[in-house]
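Table S2 (text version). Query chain:
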Amino acid sequence: MVDWLLWILAWFVGVFGWLLRIFTWLLRTLTWLLRTLTWLLRILAWLLRIFEWLLRTLTWLLRTLTWLLRILTWLLRMLSRLLRILTCFSENRDNSAEANG
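Corresponding structure-token output:
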């Protein structure tokens, strides 16, 4: 009777040992996966920071270009008005020269 009890106890200890080994292996695998995921997330965060910097730089460049285009547009309008005024004066001189003729 004692032999059977010892055999059953030994069997439970063996099964518990195997279950403990499997659980340890699962924990090690989970730890490795979490470390890998942590590194991947760090790399992703780094890439996102670079992307954010690029977008901010592009935004700044586009704003600067917009202001430069507004200034250029204003200068071209002023030049157009000036040319219109000079053209009118030139036509008036030509007309008055022909009239005085």
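Notes on Table S2: The chain is about 100% helix and 0% strand. The two ends are 145 Å apart (CA to CA).
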